[in-house]
Amino acid sequence: MLLRRFSDWPGYGLSSPFDEIDRIRREMDRLSAGLGRGVFSQPRAGVFPLMNITDRGDAYVVRAELPGMKADEIEISITRDTLALSGERKIAAESKNAKYHRKEREAGKFSRIVTLPGEISTETVEATCADGILTVVLTKSEKAKPKQISIKSE
Amino acid sequence: MSQEESRGLQAKEKAEVTGPTEQTRAGLVFTPEVDIFETEKDITLLADMPGVKADQLTIDLRDNILTLDGEVKSPEADNEVDIFREYRTGKYYRQFNLSELIDQSKIDAELKDGVLRLTLPKAEETKPRKIEVKAS
């Protein structure tokens, strides 16, 4: 891999040596970001809740961390290729004479939509909330499912 | 409805532990977000620890140091391939220094939907007393 990089090195024809330094710096940034973040190569949407989406073959699995919330408090709606989540995280008020040392947990409303990489079946959606993690299993539509193509030998 | 409730939630990444405690096992360690408040009778700690099951959570209190240690198993099955990841999973770890004396026998911990509620009753002798100031 390294050799290949060197072979198409655009070392000549640059207008200034700083271009090359810039390029190396960008490449270093990219590499170091890759090291620290693993598969975090996608830009993040910056919308609550943060989601992880995986492909299970027959379905897409969407997960989000929503501690303290129950499945029926989260509104889930789907279209052919999108999933929308909305709800409100509430933190119950404590007794009036409670004096706070820390208050880091946050309450509030949220509403988010994501586009899935393929079409999903709108009939079967399975959503569960366990230990503060919401899991939504979206079955792929027949069209989007990977098909095994068997090759016949004569 | 108060101001607090109507506000929209902001997406933010979990904070990784950067404290002085060295970890001996591989894997990410996060600082759970907590609320801590006290009343005259007790100190209550609420911690968001999504993914932690009750039997994977260790709460330890000794020498006024309270330690929360929650293990999280990766929720993804082997046959799942990442499409995109916005949050990372790993264990939770956080220590607190309690200045009050706690009645160890009456500590109550409840973990529900990924939120820990820990009630630490103050020991009798530390409960605040009203001090009367006499005018001479």
Question: What is the makeup of the main sheet of chain B?
Answer: 4 strands, mixed
Shape of chain A: flat
> Into which percent range does the helicity of residues of chain A fall?
10-25%
Helix amount of chain B: under 10%
Content-based structural category of chain B:
mainly beta
The order of strands across the largest sheet of chain B is 1-7-5-4
Low-confidence stretches of chain A: 1-9, 35-42
Strand content of chain A: 35-45%
Mean pLDDT of chain B comes to 85
Give the overall silhouette of chain B: elongated
In DSSP terms (H or I, runs of 4 or more residues), the helix count of chain A works out at: 2
Q: What's the helix-strand series of chain B? A: HEEEEEEEEE
CATH domain fold name of the domain at 29-75 and 85-124 in chain B? Immunoglobulin-like
> Within the largest sheet of chain A, what's the order of strands?
1-2-8-7
CATH domain class name of the largest domain in chain A: Mainly Beta
Number of DSSP E strands of chain B: 9
Domain count of chain A: 2
The largest chain-to-chain contact, stated as pair and per-chain residue counts, equals: A-B, 53 and 42 residues
Order of helices and strands of chain A: HHEEEEEEEE
In angstroms, what is the radius of gyration of chain A? 23 Å
